[in-house]
Amino acid sequence: MKLPKVTFWRIVIAAITILGLYYTVLRYTKGLGAVTNLSNKYPWGLWVGFDVVTGVGLAAGAFIIALTVYIFRIDEYKPILRPAILTGFLGYSLVAVGLLYDLGKWFDVWHPIVFWNPHSVMFEVAWCVMLYLSVLGLEFSTVVFERLKWHRLNHLIHILIIPLSILGVILSTLHQSSLGSLFLIVPTKLYALWYSPYLPLFFFISAVSVGLAMVTMESFLSMRFLGKGIELNLLNGLARVNVLVMAFYLTIKILDMAGRGVLGDIFSTRFESIMFDIETLVQVVIPFFLLLIPAVRTSAKGLFVTSLFIVIGFIMNRLDVAITGVEASSGTTYFPAFGEIMISVFLVTMGFLAFAYAAKYLNVFVHVEEKEEGPVEIIHDV
Amino acid sequence: MAKMGILIDITKCIGCGACEKACKMRNGLPLDLENNLSATAYTVVQERLPGTYVRRMCMHCQNPTCVSVCPVGAFTKTAAGPVTYDKDKCIGCRYCMYSCPFSVPKYQWDRVVPYIQKCYMCADRVAEGSEPACTAACPTGASIFGDRDQLIEEAQKRIKDNPHTYVDHLYGLEEVGGTSVLYLSNVPFEKLGEPFNINLPDKPLPVYTWAALEKVPTIVVVGGVVLTGIWWITSRRDEVKKFEIKHKEQKKLTGKGDKP
After folding, report:
1. What is the mean pLDDT of residues A4-30?
2. pTM, to two decimals
3. Alpha-carbon distance A338 to A21, whole Å?
4. How many Cβ contacts (< 8 angstroms) between chains A and B?
5. Which entry of A99, A208, A217, B232 is 20 to 30 Å from B251 by CA?
6. Chain B residues with CB inside 8 Å of A174's CB?
């Protein structure tokens, strides 16, 4: 038997895994208090803010590309479909695993299925995420069935793919926006620059933007490390759509702040205002102007760097809304404990590994032939 | 709607802590007195200003935020007034803690299987026509239990009769749609800290999230119709394209054949 070669990244991954498993055991044997810095005054922290609220947004690429390919039938984007759906499936799976860490009674995670409360945003999010994870599983299953040569099951998915995609787009629209609605309930706790009746709309639009950026980043990284990726002109197309999305986002944000009379707060020297300004610059303003430069738009590296800005800015935005924005009203301060951070890093690492293995062993990045695609036929005209 | 309530008159509270002890006895909690509401203290008396004591407890809102946010409906606003919690339904998401405008629900952070803990206004005793342990124990009448409407009348009478003692505000009458627990004070409420938040709207907080949630059926229906419509148009477009290509090819073939 050949031993695996010891490389820098393998050591890092091994260290993360050991620490992750250690804190996993600690969390499930000693409770949330033993691993987290959460308290009665600060009941939500990194796991809700990052693993769940941010994670769902980062996986938004799947529904946008499914919409583009299956509903709009823009066939050029077909090569992006599989990596996007894989990211979505892994992303939502990690959200589900993250929830199992965060929920105090994680073994009762299925309760929303039987105990209903339609007045709860959390109830709606729970149902949407549950259903959409199933949709993504089915959408991605075709890649696995293809590999296993289970043609009849594969055919069944092909028959269902259009209704599944429509369902997926509706569910995504609902829960991406509803993650913003979660915070509508704290009008006096959340800092005024973030609290807006339009939070659902902001969350939805920024999820579209970051979904496109994530697809671009993945493609770049896959090309770099696996030698498999997506053609530059397609990524360029995504970037151009993203310019419009970001322009729209920034415009309605400014209009909303002006309408609520808090626009002046962006010049305040309060901690929250500074965080808001940094977040907005990184998430929208800088990538917007970068993408206006043709040299950036047409180079793989340029697109990667721009997407990285959008992704980091997006993460900042979600953490700001869920954590930073309520700090002042909480009467205490919060910074995640080492154990909390390690669990999040561990989950993200597992996601990366799963993606790499799937890309290696499954037909994720290769353009599939018309025959295997079944009812969704490509027209090879001209 | 909710009938019973508690009127807390801050001017009459001497900070003896009898209510705290009675609560802890009633609920089998560790008897040492605590500074803040916690998983083992459903009510506490805090000296906010020299000689001014504020008793903290669940406000038992008329339209409670916790009841609305809980994804599994673990909270109930009972007909008699108390807001109760079902620990078996709870999944531990802590959205109630995050959203409660009075920061009332507390958590058992040190337990492997933790539950939310908060005052339930001794709902079992109230259901039997009795009163909560805390009000029964109060020696000065600073906390009294009764029909909420009658308590409001009584409170307004006290304000009217002693306009120089009381500030002209019955806290809990309007805040977030009204609460079953009401406060009278001789010190402006904004100087006393929690649970007094003068920025709270008179609208119940669940109204804010419902504004978004009520749109869900519309999004589902309109989204379904629009997406199916778009798909129908695009697939039709592709079919037509395909047909035209075929037609062209056929024409080419037959055209060639026609030439002698």
Report:
1. 92
2. 0.91
3. 13
4. 178
5. B232
6. 216, 219-220
CA A247 and chain centroid, separation: 20
Domain that holds residue B193: 4-203
Would B141 be classed as within a structural domain?
Answer: yes
**Contacts with B109 from chain A: Cβ below 8 Å:** 31-33, 38-40
Nearest to A95 by CA among A67, A68, A58: A58
Per residue in A143-165, pLDDT tens?
A: 999 889 888 898 898 889 999 99
User: Token pair of B121, please?
Assistant: 């206004």
- Closest C-alpha among A309, A285, A283, A305 to residue A296: A305
Q: Does B101 touch chain A (CB under 8 A)?
A: yes
Domain parsing of chain A, residue ranges:
12-363
Q: Could you tell me if A185 lies within 8 Å of chain B, comparing CB atoms?
A: yes
Counting the structural domains of chain B, the total is: 2
> In one letter, which amino acid is A320?
D
- A102, A48 in Cβ contact below 8 A? yes
CATH of A12-363, picked from 3.30.420.270, 3.40.50.720, 1.20.1630.10, 1.10.720.60, is 1.20.1630.10
The stretches in chain B having pLDDT less than 70 are 1-2, 255-260
Cα angle A367-A159-A175, degrees, rounded to a multiple of 5: 85
**Measured CA distances, A313 to A226, A247, A322 (Å):** 27, 15, 14
Best of B46, B87, B94 to substitute, by most chain A Cβ atoms within 10 angstroms, is B94
Q: B136-146 in b/e burial notation, b at 16+ Cβ within 10 A?
A: bbbeeebbbbb
